[in-house]
Design brief:
By secondary structure, the chain is mainly α. The chain is built from seven helices and no strands. Helix content is 57%, strand content 0%. Helix 1 runs parallel beside helix 5 and helix 4 runs antiparallel to helix 6.
């Protein structure tokens, strides 16, 4: 019984990887996303394969790759966008292009990008509202206090009538 939607029969073996390896990689990536990017699932072997797929460049190590792509909601959205935009070059006999395309279809079918973009927007709104509350508490004062402060700050206006004195211009 497979641990995901991909079966070995869905893929073509390469010289160095079996169809089962490809299916396992695809299922592992989907499990990793479903787990909300759990660090424990980001194993060395998974990192090694993922760093060679979807046009990723080699990072110095697994920790930096994880930090770059999975440490924040914004990074996760960036990863999903990057993954979906990649054109999946090569032939399945030589590359993982067939599993890359299958992963892209699953990401679209499962609506991951829209779900994570919504979460990111909600996180940004919560952050903005928290900052607004902080700034309001610092700079906004109740109306009664403001009126009292204005009264203290402005000099009293003398309302007694004054008769103008006209002087000679010559």
């Amino acid at each position: 019984m497979p641990k995901g939607p991909f079966l070995p029969s869905d893929f073509t073996a390469t010289k160095f990887s079996t169809a089962a390896d490809k299916a396992e990689f695809g299922n592992t990536l989907l499990r990793f996303i479903e787990s909300e990017w759990a660090s424990a699932l980001f194993t060395k072997s998974f990192y090694n394969r993922l760093s060679m797929c979807f046009g990723h460049i080699a990072h110095y190590n697994r920790t930096q790759f994880h930090e770059e792509w999975f440490s924040t909601l914004a990074a996760q959205v960036r990863f999903l966008k990057h993954t979906l935009r990649f054109p999946c070059y090569g032939e399945p006999e030589y590359t993982f292009s067939d599993v890359e395309r299958a992963i892209q279809r699953e990401i679209v079918d499962r609506n991951y990008l829209a779900r994570y973009e919504l979460r990111l927007a909600e996180e940004q709104q919560a952050s903005d509202l928290a900052m607004l509350r902080q700034l309001e508490s610092k700079y906004r004062m109740p109306v009664a206090e403001r009126d009292q402060e204005l009264q203290l700050a402005s000099p009293p206006v003398d309302q007694t009538s004054v008769t103008p004195v006209q002087g000679s211009l010559f």
